[in-house]
Amino acid sequence: MTPPIPDTLISRLTSAGAVTFFTGAGVSAESGVPTFRGTDGIWAKFKPEELANLSAFMKNPELVWEWYRARKTIIATVRPNAGHFALAAMEALFPGCTLITQNIDNLHRRAGSRHILELHGNIERNYCLKCGAPYGDEDLPQTEGVPRCSRAGCAGLIRPDVVWFGEMLPEDEWDAAVRASAAADVFFSVGTSGIVYPAASLPLTAKQQGAFLVEINPEPTSLTRSVDLFLQGLSGEILPAIVERVKEKRIVG
Ligand code: BJW
Ligand code: ZN
């Protein structure tokens, strides 16, 4: 069930200079992309805390690639959902709108969002661990097993261009995300469990700097007790409802 959207949120939004959205795997759940820590159990064999790090990759690149190949296949076959499209519409409604995502699935871009700060990389890109050469998915050998660099004399292991545990976030994206969080008049945390740092600190940065903090999630998280407004439900239902209400208010004045 979609909770009612309070008038105070719509007023704050229509008078806001800067609106920032911060998304996690939950926004893609309704597209059919499994979350990391969901109860659906699909990643029972593949635990992000065990696989999403460089030492796991060095120890067992076959297993890590099996996980990423499975995810690349899912992502290539799904479509953005109403939540992604609503976020793209927000960009048109609010000139000072920033979208920060932890997702690597490209669904925000496919839905039409243009200004996206991707904190954890992008699953459609890959690179050679040895020489750094970039590889698109189309450049990878389609066979099973671990792809290797085709540059003369290299043959290094190719890895997905995503941020694993213990690795730094891309510096420019991170700096821009901190600025957009600190500058936000209204900050939304959508579909994230908020347990992975440093990304999980962004809603708190926003709040400390005076933002009205909103969370959209079917389940309470560790952030919930700090928010000004918790909208409990699905992002694919709540985000479009907010877009509609903002449009109505703009027309009625
Ligand atoms: C819906 C919904 C619907 C469902 N609508 N909602 C101890 C304390 C603090 C920090 C650390 C620590 N030990 C280590 C660290 C650091 C570590 C960390 O945070 N670990 C924690 C787990 C404790 N962080 C790092 O290592 C980061 N780097 C770093 O810190 O660098 C500095 C450093 C350098 C050197 C040494 C040490 C430090 C890097 C973190 C990289 C995270 N990477 C991953 C994988 C990316 C690649 C890939 O996808 O394969 O990023 S892990 C995974 O988690 C992925 C996600 O982006 C991230 C967050 O997950 P998310 O999006 O929140 O998903 P879920 O599944 O957790 O939640 C889904 C939510 O949706 C749920 O709440 C649902 O209820 C909800 N939902 N349906 C709305 N329809
Ligand atoms: Zn190479």
How is this fold's topology laid out?
Layout: H1 7-15, E1 19-23, H2 26-29, H3 48-51, H4 54-59, H5 61-77, H6 82-93, E2 97-101, H7 107-111, E3 116-118, E4 121-128, E5 134-136, E6 158-162, H8 171-183, E7 186-190, H9 202-208, E8 212-217, E9 229-232, H10 235-252
Parallel strand pairs: 1-2, 1-7, 2-3, 7-8, 8-9
Antiparallel strand pairs: 4-5, 4-6
The chain binds ligand BJW and zinc ion (ZN).
Zinc ion binds at residues 128, 130-131, 133, 149, 151, 154, 156.
Question: Descriptors for this entry?
Answer:
single chain; 253 residues; alpha/beta; Rossmann fold; SIR2/SIRT2 'Small Domain'; 2 domains; six-stranded parallel beta sheet; 9 strands; 38% helix; binds ligand BJW
Oligomer class: single chain
What is the class of the largest domain in the CATH system?
A: Alpha Beta
Termini separation? 28 Å
* Biggest sheet details: 6 strands, parallel
Question: Would you give an account of this structure?
Answer:
The chain has 10 helices and 9 strands. The protein folds into 2 domains: 1-33 and 80-120 and 168-253, Rossmann fold (3-Layer(aba) Sandwich); 34-77 and 124-162, SIR2/SIRT2 'Small Domain' (2-Layer Sandwich), CATH 3.30.1600. The strands form 2 sheets. The protein has a 6-stranded parallel β-sheet with strand order 3-2-1-7-8-9, with helices on both faces. Strands 5-4-6 form a 3-stranded antiparallel β-sheet, covered by helices on one side. Helix content is 38%, strand content 17%. The model has no long low-confidence stretch (mean pLDDT 94). By secondary structure, the protein is α/β, with parallel strands linked by helices. Helix 1 (7-15) crosses helix 10 (235-252), helix 6 (82-93) packs parallel to helix 10 and helix 8 packs parallel to helix 9. The longest helix is centred in the last third of the chain and has 18 residues, at 235-252. Ligand BJW is lined by residues 24-26, 29-30, 35-38, 48, 52, 102, 104, 120, 162-168, 191-193, 195-198, 216-219, 221, 234-236. The site of zinc ion (ZN) has 8 residues, from loops.
